[in-house]
Amino acid sequence: MLHLNYRLDGPDSAPVLVLSNSIAATLSMWEPQMEALSRSYRVLRYDTRGHGQSDVPEGAYSIDDLGGDVIGLLDMLGIGRVHFCGLSLGGMTGMWLAQNHPQRLDKLVLSNCVPHIGNPDIWNPRIAAVLQDGMQQAGATQASRWFKPDFQAEYPQRYRELEQEAMDTPAKGYAGCCAVLRDADLSRRLDDIASPTLVIGGAHDLPTPPAKVKDLAQRIPGAKYVEVDGGHLANVDASQAYTAAVLEFLG
Predict the structure, then answer these.
(1) Is residue 4 a contact partner of residue 50, using CB atoms and an 8 Å limit?
(2) Which partner for 86 in 63, 91, 173, 250 could form a disulfide, CB atoms 3.0-4.6 Å apart?
(3) What does 142-167 look like in DSSP terms, one character per residue?
(4) pLDDT of 98-117, one tens digit each?
(5) How many CB atoms are located within 10 Å of the residue 248 CB?
(6) Other C-beta atoms within 10 Å of 121: how many?
(7) Contact criterion met (CB below 8 Å) for 42 and 15
């Protein structure tokens, strides 16, 4: 069985909230939310396969792999239903779970994500480059597109930490998850999502522009859309507004 690195925080008896990270990040990206969320929820964070301290399987991964990993982790921990909050790649994982295992989800937060990215002409050269040259350049480029313009100047230490995490991502794991972003298409079954859903966009998000994230919200029955003054990792550079939106929705 694939090993996923995970961490549980918060009261044992509280409802479980799963947090799922972006590509080239780890469970530590959720630190800005932890103090507030862990007061009311049993927060389960994990490193997506190929990232952090989780296993790094060979080859291309699929969205079925990433979603199945979450179900396997919940089964291993004896957890039935959960709230789920995923950002970027983690948001696509959340869509898959809502479409394929709706009985396991209560409320769903989809953040800074779209149901289909595609474009092999971008992803295939990136996969080839990181497998040949490693993650130094790719990690730096990834971090440079994550935040609103003033974030690096205002919070240089936090920026460097997240940039280093991106650079430290195993090249095979990053490439495997790039294949997910290249291949996954969750747009055909958005009408099937029955969980109460909050969609969060970032006003300065470059990889998933807010207009596209808002369109996702409009395609999910009953979904609510909130836009915060952040970039792609809006939970980091608009952390207070992001956390408040999640707490209000879950509460």
Answers:
(1) no
(2) 91
(3) HHHTTS-TTHHHH-HHHHHHHHHHHH
(4) 999 999 999 999 999 999 99
(5) 11
(6) 8
(7) yes
